[in-house]
Amino acid sequence: MQISITGGSGYLAGRICKFFSKNLSNKIFLISRTPEKHLVSKNIFAISLSDKSAFEQCISSSDIIIFTAGYNSHMASRDPNGAIQFAQTSIKEVSNLINRNTTLIYLSTAHVYKNPLVGEIDENTNLENMHPYALANITGEKSLIKLAKDKNLREIILRVSNCFGMPANQSKNCWNLVLNEMCLTAIQKKLIHITGPENSIRNFLPIRTFLYQLEFLIKSKKGEYPNIINLGHTRSFSIIEIANIVKNRCKHLFDFEPLIKVNQNNQDFFQLNYKSRYLKHPSNVEENFFLELDEMLLSINNKKLVL
Fold it and tell me: What are phi and psi of 42, to 5 degrees?
């Protein structure tokens, strides 16, 4: 199977690449403006967008195309028009090159639904978030659906909650993510600093769970599931709850407890049930949560992290 990943230098792209490359019969192509050449191996290849010929050949021969490229929330806030235009362009770049039975996968976000993300949310919930980051992802979703319809292809849109875990490519871009940053400062500074409201609610998804679900959907038959699927953890946590989980894991693994510093104390807690109407959680979903968390803490502690 040939898998092409746009945004190949990104956080999730690296983990997707490493996961699927374990099957040596797979060929993985990482496509980006700045290819991650250190990930190149026997069945992993780096393709630069500036190499038009290689890009065209890669896309036209792919069985799976996974779109991971896009503006993050901060970038979209600074340049809303650029974020939306990029979402459209990333789909358009491949539209004329696909000429076979290809599966198209677009990694969208849970944040298309609401801001803040609270309450009962499934795939039938209305899209109400007008933040540029949400609007850019909605644009990408619509562009992919149109492309798949025009070409009679299979599309999978994954509205993913907040992924966490170690990067495969030592990327610095992931350490401003809430749970990743908590783990980093818990080890390096013995401090977890909550700068926003402690009662802010999030759904944190271990990357290994995301990868297992992604693989499951790829292997499923066309039409077996709807084209839009929510991916999240079994339950959500307030920021103070997740900080205490990190604190307790540090005590268990290293016999020290980082100090939790809170800027905005709140007593009232919101609720969030982010779920899929169609996709069941794997049986080891809770185990995966702590495996991912402990792996990150241990890796940072063992200084396998380059910052």
Answer: -60, -35
DSSP state letters, 138-167: HHHHHHHHHHHHHHT-EEEEEEE-EEES--
Where is 52: in which H helix or E strand? helix 52-60
Q: Which of 49, 43, 42, 41 is closest to 9 using CA atoms? A: 49
C-alpha triplet 24, 287, 118: angle, nearest 5°: 105
**For residues 135 and 128, what is the distance between their CA atoms, to the nearest angstrom?**
10
- pLDDT tens digits along 250-280: 999 999 999 999 987 777 778 999 999 999 9
The per-residue pLDDT for 96 is 85
Rounded CA-CA distance 89/87 in Å is: 6
Span 129-162, pLDDT tens digits: 999 999 999 999 999 999 999 999 999 999 999 9
Do the Cβ atoms of 68 and 10 come closer than 8 Å?
yes
> Is residue 53 helix, strand or coil?
helix
Buried b (16+ CB within 10 A) or exposed e, 40-51: eeebbbbbbbee
